Amino acid sequence: MSDEGDEDGPDTSGEGADAATRVRVRGIYTTALTRLFGGGAEVVLASEPIRDRFDAGFDVRPPDATVSTTDDRQGVGVVGDPDAVGALGAELAGVGIDALSWDDQIPAGAVFEGVVTDTLGGGAVVDLGDGEGYLPYDDAEGYVEEGDVRRVQVREPAPPWGGDRPTLSADLVVDGGGLVELRRGAGGGGDSEAARMASLLSVDPPEGWSPRWTQWADDADMDALRASLERANERADAVTRALADSDPDTAPARLVAPLDTRWVWFGRESRFALDDLRREVTTTMPGHHRTKAATEAASAAVDFAEAVCEPSGEFPFAAVTRQFGPHVGDRIAIEHGKPEGRLITLGRGEVVDYDPGGSIRVEREMTPGGSYDALGVERRAGDVAATKFVEGRWWYATVYRDSEGGIRGTYVNVCTPLELLPGAVRYVDLHVDVIKHADGRVERVDDDELDAAVETGNVPGSLAERAREVASRIEDAL
């Protein structure tokens, strides 16, 4: 593809990221984010459907960062040069009030001296100092046992809400921005036309590193190939220097991190904001991203619906849940995100009632022992927790009853807008909650935790203010 002028790229309003930032976008949010970034950052390496959808030319140039949808489709990861990751991450976090972001302390491409702490069936757990990683035996050198010091690189970083460890490898690879990668000690440079022309470039890979050209190299001009190889060389040099200065006795320790990684979680309101962006470009049903994020099986159905009909203007909760769930009788998890990026499961319950207007009721039989948070009431055998979840609501109430049906207390959790997904209800907890004791007393709790989250930067001020407003309304209603 030949280079095109800026006037041929997608036009959007707003300042956006710095125009010098080049970004590659991948996954279910690609159209919306291409529209978002088009007013500032330059989108490159666009797929054919995106080129057709925008009717625009996109350069084949090495990106400064890549934005990719996470495997669970709940958000995106941003990987690349620190300045680009910072600018793009800030813009993504501004998509909606319930978009939250975190920097990864174990970023993609980082190299560590790690210590093996456990050996599992298919790989080893490695202490990296900044956290743990998972080293598959197929990607390790030789036999692996506990106590080994291993030099490893982060091959696949992991979002904080997923609970998985990042995947590691003993092989060292640096990326040049989508066109070329350098492998330490590996031979071969591919068989594409661009690879065969690599000898014409006035840039040689560092000693001990070999290039592998990607399919995008076939469409790139010589300037782009040269720029990509130069970028890869800089990153490889940084790794080489770090290896020369490393000392296994300091393990576990990070040696070098050529790239930054940031994760952005999109809540329900953010997904609908992304729908609006996508709708500026092509037909988009209400709840497009909300539905696709719910289950991979929904993608084909959404694409079909958008191809044959115009949307009504409202999220089709009944149609989506009827097709994909949740349904009465299903057991679903309460996936409770924390503002610092963790995701925990509060428990699983049975869907006992379903309203096509947008709600479900879930009951959980409680196990005895301990007490209910803030209520100060002992948890007894036979207790049942009944919770009504309403799609899009900023709170949900759980009523605890004893074996004879008597109320033991009510706990109202304030959170980002609820999403009722197949197999799970998902949200991010906003700390402040309201409780109603069995004697009728109403109490608001954990404002201090919300204040602390704002202080640490885990909860934006505007989101905290919304949480406090919701809590105040609940107090008045109770």
Task: Name some characteristics of this structure.
4 domains, 478 residues, disordered N terminus, 25% helix, OB fold (Dihydrolipoamide Acetyltransferase, E2P), six-stranded mixed beta sheet, alpha+beta, 26 strands, globular, 11 helices
Describe this protein's structure.
With 478 residues, the protein is of the alpha+beta class. It folds into 4 domains: 6-101 and 263-275, no CATH class; 111-171, Nucleic acid-binding proteins (OB fold (Dihydrolipoamide Acetyltransferase, E2P)), CATH 2.40.50.140; 173-243; 322-477, FomD barrel-like fold, CATH 2.40.380.10. 25% of the residues lie in helices and 32% in strands. The protein has 11 helices and 26 strands. The strands form 5 sheets. The chain has a 7-stranded mixed β-barrel. Strands 2-1-3-4-15-5 form a 6-stranded mixed β-sheet. The protein is globular, with a radius of gyration of 25 Å. The N and C termini lie far apart (63 Å). Residues 1-16 and 188-195 have low confidence and may be disordered.
Summarize the structure.
With 478 residues, the protein is an alpha+beta fold. The protein folds into four domains: 6-101 and 263-275, no CATH class; 111-171, Nucleic acid-binding proteins (OB fold (Dihydrolipoamide Acetyltransferase, E2P), Beta Barrel), CATH 2.40.50.140; 173-243; 322-477, FomD-like (FomD barrel-like fold, Beta Barrel). It contains eleven helices and 26 strands.
